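I would love for you to help me understand the pair of lines that follows before we discuss the fold together.
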Amino acid sequence: MKIGIVGGGQLARMLALAGYPLGFEFRILDPAADACAGQVATLVRGEYDDETQLDALADWADVVTFDFENVPASAARALKKTVEVFPPPGALALAQDRLCEKGLFWESDIPVPAFATVDSLEELRDAADKVSLPAVLKTRRLGYDGKGQRVLRAPEDIEPAWRELGGAPLILEGFVPFEREVSALAARGRDGEIAFYPLVENYHREGILRLSRASCPLPELEREGWDYARRLLERLHYVGLLAIEFFVHRGRLIANEMAPRVHNSGHWTIEGAETSQFENHLRAIAGLPLGSAAALGPCAMLNCVGSMPERAAVLAVPGAHYHAYGKASRPGRKVGHITLRAADDGALQTGIERLLPLVGYAPDEFGPIA
């Protein structure tokens, strides 16, 4: 089977690496000559909305997917006219607009923070009264890893935030004083079969995911997260891997955002689950039976941001696996990750404490990992 991927970052790279044992072929469309997926698959250079290249990809592929949610939904819809595209372009379009996304959650009876649309300074003032401060002002489109967001804690924050972000459509969301951040990942096949991964607890710094741990020791919340994921998967007639990020507040999940693709918080599945998120995404879009999403034991993932740690030091930690993306070092850039699998929670904690300094954090950077 020939699989086209729009977007050539590390997610496309890991999709290709997971797909070769299944006998798949890959072709990647990306505007960057140094797109890291091009090191492991055929890279075709072109903008994501380049009609000529999209037509060529559609002619070659049996199915097309994408590796990040800012691929223009119009490109996915254009591809859909001549080739199967999964996840569906409609899901991609919803995830690209935070207002539409929040509306989808609301209509699906999934708890969300209070929110209001903002298109002027006057509307922002009104929204601040409606939502109440503190609140988070966000661009409706193109924000990720904390970009395009400003926290409003007092009325005097309103005008500076508007000056900084007011050139784009905005949404104001109530600030959630969360106790934890978690994500639910699930894959849905063409036949409606669903595989749920363990709920993952996430730790961020400066808006970037730094550490994920599976499974989160909250079984009642795991069932709740799976229920919400099922609602979205079925409502959207979804095919592929879907990730939903939640805040945990007073023992309940509050939806933050969804990602219609394989997800950073699921990288632990490469060594830590019976079937990785990448393989299950490919199985789903190819119409193959899904694999078990069960964890093989306590697992964690640490992002390498800016530069890669010393390889031998990482591999000296029992259960650790080193994943470099073939990217040049740059501050704030995700250049790789480490997965860690252990026999028990105690061994996992010990391994995390050994690995954290290698990727630039103190052993207690994120407090007790429990």
